[in-house]
Amino acid sequence: MIKLNRRLLLWLALFLTAFVIFRFATIDDRNRANDEKTLVKIQEKLKKERAGNGDNLIEEVQEDPQTDTKCYYDNQCALPQMLFRVRTETDNLPPFACLNDIKLFDTENIGRGVNVAVLNGTTGDIIEKATFDVTASDEKLMTWLLKIPHASLLVAASFGDVAEHVSRQCRQLFEAFGAQKIDGWRVGSAYAIIGQRGIKRGEAHEIVSKFLDDHSAGKLFEGCFELPIAETTEVELKVDGPPVHRADESKLAELGAFEADLLQNKDVEYGDKWKNCGMSRACNEQDSIPVHFFSGEHKDDHPKMCIGGKMLFDKDLNKAGRGLNLAMLEPKTGKVTAVAHFDTYEDGYGIHVAVLVRLRKPCGFLVGLSYLGF
């Protein structure tokens, strides 16, 4: 009897041990399954909330992956809603803005200053896009804002540290498009807005983000818009006081100190396309571009420079020749903003000093190629 009880106890112990092992082995799977079910329910709930018709705009502000710059349709935006996506400039990326699958601002058509687009307030059709360099004055930007028709949509994004070049009068005009946060736009920060002429102050959708602040840089807001954004009323626009002029552009240019004069140089001519500038494969990093330099081997050679898959200096291209061949690139877009050639054997010392004075501020990357030509 004692032996039988011992056997029963042994079998019972083995059974309990196996049962405990089985429970621990399956508990993780059950928890994982429950977590997945919960996640699916949350996602379905979010989709229902985003598809709801209660709000004109369903807005999200989130940390933006650097690669998330594509424009696309979103089937969660029920007609006649349209998807807008806007991101302010970050420490290493330019701003961008999308209307459905149409990119309003990109590296090809963006410029230093305030980039703007005006759209039909009923259909969302793009009426006009422009860039205003406000370095010396924001008068042209104000004149443009005054001409925007009633109830038109305004999409704008700054590029460059230009906050202190936007005057009080100009900011007041933005208020007619529902702006409010623009009052807090200061040095070291970027600004973006989706507004509409005639809505109340504070009803526009704005972002003011610091370039170097991890908590605000890289912000993206997107939403499904049903036009109009809010109720609009007729607003008379006028400039309060004379426009602000910070300096005489022509005088500064004569002194070689007007940085924007060089940045807005329109004499950049591109030559033939050269895939990856001769590299066997494309650059892997998003913030890198292919380049190629050839300084010549023989007296009959010509200096060659390829940037971004296009020839920039070559025979009879951008006056390439003996001496120093220079190209300036905007650091966040990789776009060539200016080119220059200096024959260092004839031009003398003075022209070199003028160039260095112009480039004394961190306004872009300078790429140089020397060529002896002997």
TrEMBL record:
<keyword id="KW-1015">Disulfide bond</keyword>
<dbReference type="InterPro" id="IPR039220">
    <property type="entry name" value="FAM3"/>
</dbReference>
<dbReference type="InterPro" id="IPR039477">
    <property type="entry name" value="ILEI/PANDER_dom"/>
</dbReference>
<protein>
    <submittedName>
        <fullName>ILEI domain-containing protein</fullName>
    </submittedName>
</protein>
<keyword id="KW-0964">Secreted</keyword>
<dbReference type="GO" id="GO:0005576">
    <property type="term" value="C:extracellular region"/>
</dbReference>
<dbReference type="Pfam" id="PF15711">
    <property type="entry name" value="ILEI"/>
</dbReference>
<comment type="similarity">
    <text>Belongs to the FAM3 family.</text>
</comment>
<feature type="domain" description="ILEI/PANDER">
    <location>
        <begin position="112"/>
        <end position="198"/>
    </location>
</feature>
<keyword id="KW-0732">Signal</keyword>
